[in-house]
Structure formats: structure tokens, C-alpha cells
Amino acid sequence: MAKNIMIQGTMSNAGKSLLAAGLCRIFKQDGYRAAPFKSQNMALNSFITAAGGEMGRAQVVQAEAAGTAPDVRMNPILLKPTTDMGSQVIVNGVVQGNMRAVEYYRRKPEFFPAVLEAYRSLEAEYDIIVIEGAGSPAEINLKQDDIVNMGLAKRVDAPVLLVGDIDRGGVFAQLYGTVALLEPEERALIKGTIVNKFRGDRAILEPGLKMLEDLCGVPVAGVVPYVHVDIDDEDSLSERFTRDTARKLIDIAVIRLPRISNFTDFAPFERYENVSLRYVASPRDLHQPDLILLPGTKSTISDLRWLRQCGLEAAVLKAASAGTPVMGICGGYQMLGRTVSDPEGVEAEGAMSIAGLGLLEMDTVFRGDKVQRQTRGVFGPVGGIFSGLSGMAYEGYEIHMGRGQEEAPVLAGGGTVYGTYLHGVFDGPGVAEAVLRALCERKGADFARLGAFDAAAYKEQQYDLLADAVRSGLDMEFVYRVLNREV
What we know:
This protein has 14 helices and 24 strands. It has helices spanning 16-29, 57-66, 101-123, 150-156, 171-180, 184-187, 206-216, 267-270, 300-309, 312-321, 331-335, 431-443, 455-473, 476-483, and strands at 3-9, 34-37, 40-42, 46-48, 54-56, 77-81, 86-91, 94-100, 128-132, 160-165, 190-198, 220-225, 250-255, 260-261, 275-280, 291-294, 296-297, 326-329, 339-342, 352-355, 363-378, 393-404, 412-414, 417-420. Strands 2-9-1-10-11-12 form a six-stranded parallel β-sheet, sandwiched between helices. A hairpin with a 2-residue loop joins β23 and β24 (417-420). α1 (16-29) crosses α13 (455-473) and α5 (171-180) runs parallel beside α7. The longest helix is centred in the N-terminal third of the chain and has 23 residues, at 101-123. The protein is globular, with a radius of gyration of 23 Å. The relative contact order is 0.12.
């Protein structure tokens, strides 16, 4: 029977996901079989497992850090927002349908048995379960039928470490205020607090830490430094979207759609020293990139309409007519076709159809059943600028409701316009390099100037760096005492 420990936060983006990943890596380094668990995740960044189930990307990262295969049991409920008021609900990797928020909260008790079943089965297979909460346990309007914070902690008897984000400011108020709003039996589950994302000299914090311990009645389990690691992050709060990236030798522009999903598809390009990957939300920021990427989206028709209204469609078409390569993935691929139709109202309420960008000879029709599968193979003949991909191995996963009218190759198109349903297409050995080599050749640039990159070694190095930072900030002796129920 596995031991468990739970990371809860004072708010969203307090750093729960990375701390949980760091603990997963530490437990792996210390010789334990660890697994992550988050009963309910809301994210557009999802993943398809080898068994064909869909789960949140954050738990995939945590599983990788733990050295174990991602499994939908690690994230039994995934909510993928479709509108401001509703989400697609996925339970144990399978779509249950679109639900408005009020309907989901009404039906949430129905899903809790699936959460407990998933947890209990993992508990029988691993030494340690690292549980991640969601948002804040002090959302007093949502505490009834809670299945992700204290409600879950009570059901699985999980000791809790409460995390606050000092980088945003007000960390003492965050932590004490959260504890103060909890019920007595909930407070008893909190064994320590963590000050996260700290920059500076810990000695300056010490007086406040002592007062915090007195106020909360539990020790401060650690002060974790602000971590600079290149690890997949949650989609809606990614710093990638807001950072100012100067254009480098090879400049790639990703269209930042309102409901962008699986933006981690493009991470391989970020790791080359002389490649800029910019997220663009207005025509004035597009400039003259070497490649334009249209990412996946949970709402293809709605985001295509936004692309048209904000002027980016015209800017992309102008760039394409001038010879700039354009590639779309999943929803972005569908946008590049002639039409996108939703006759059954799969994406949103009501049937609708809209013209695409017309850069590929394809018509997309949405259907009720969802394609969810991992895919691997070898690229067939690829024409045009990216012909170097011909015969190369690929691997990735598909998540889409829309279908083309005819079976298309894994990489459709040619010339300078391409599309694929394959998420993770650039992760395959040599694929991102082949794309960058083609862009360098077109530009007359030396590929060697981009910098060498070993993707697998780099990823492992980043997980180890994260573990080092978390280990240095936490009192791991105390954490193990919590884990062993000695606190």
C-alpha cells in the first residue's frame, strides 16, 4: 500500500505542478516507485496515452519526472474549456460530453467513485503517491462536494503541504488566510507550509517565517527558490505567452489563438540557442518570420473567426503568398483548409460552418466521436521546402473531433504550406532539426549557428535541475516524516 503526500496551493499558479514534479523526481532518485495523481485538472494541454486515453499534460510531466509511464488513472477527470461557461468532460481518458459548469458541479458526485477507483488502483502499484490539488482549498463557495482538495485529502487520508507564491507578493496573507478559512478537521490535515518562487536571501524572511508558524500552528517546510527550468507548463498560465522574445537567426511565429491547446508541440524549437519562438496575437507583431505555425485549439470555428476579425488571417495569407512557410497542427491544420463545418454542434451549441484560409485542399466536418490515439511510423514522400522529412520516423498523438473528407497523409500539403493532426510531431528524433535545416537553407544561414541539441538528455537534465532546486529548498527530512506519518 503506497504512502501519500498532497501539495495544495493558496491559488492557481502557486507552483503546485512543478513542486509535485520535483518531489516525484526526488523520490525516484531516492529509490522509490512514485506516481502523480490529480483527481481533476482543467487544461487544454492534454496528452494521449499508449492505451488511447486522454489526460492532462501536467501529470504526464510528473510521471516522466518519476520515471513511469503516463496513465489516465493519474488524472481521472480532465476538463477542457470550450466556452467561458462550459467544458468538455473527460473521465478516465474517455469523453463524457460537453457540460456547462452548473451541470458539471451538479453531476460531480457521480464522478467521484471513478476518482477513488483510479487512486486505489495506483495505490496498490506504487510506493508513494504525490497528489496535486487544484486552485485553492479555501474556495468557500465550492467546498461542497469537493473532490480535488480537502475533500480528496480526507477520503484518502493524505497529509497536506500548503504552497504560497511569494513572487506575486502577499505570501504570508495567502498562507495564513487560506488556513484561517478552513474547517478544523481540514486544518488538521495541513502538516506544513511552503514559500515558493523565492528570489533573494532567506535570512530576510526568517522573522516572518517564525510568525507564520505561530499563526498557522504548523512548521514552514521550506522556502523553494524561483526555478528556471525548461519543463512543460500549464497552458492558460504559461509565461511563454507573455515574454518578450527578440527575433534571432531563425524566427518562428506561433499564432496565439484564444483557446490554444498543446502549445508544447513547439517546445523543441525553443531549445536551440539561435532560434526565436514568438507567440503572436496581433498582425503588428507578426513581422517577417521564417515559419508561421497555427497551433491546436479546443474551438476551431470560434478561433478561426477571431483570426479573421483581428486581421491575422489577412497577415498570414499575405505572408504565405510571399513564400513564407506555414504549418498547422490539429485545429490549425483544419483552419488551413477550405471549410470547417460542425453540423451536429459538437464544438458548441448549434450547427455552423465557416470558410477556412483556403491554403490546403481540405474540408473538415466535426463528428461526435473523438479520435484519441498514439501514432508512429515513417513520413511518406513530402514535397516542397520540408522534403527532407521524407522517410524520417515520426511519433506523436492525435486528439480531434474533426475529420477531412478523405484520408490524408500524416503530413499533408507541400510547397510551403503543410498540415498535420499529429501533436508532438517535432519531438521525433531529427524532425525539428530537419525543419530548421530547411529554413536555414532557404535563408542562406549556417545551421551550425543554431546550436546542438540532444532532446532526451536535455529533458532528463531539466528534471534533475528541478529536483535539485526543490531538494535544496525543502526540509526533506521533515517531508519524509510527514510521509511516514511521524508529524
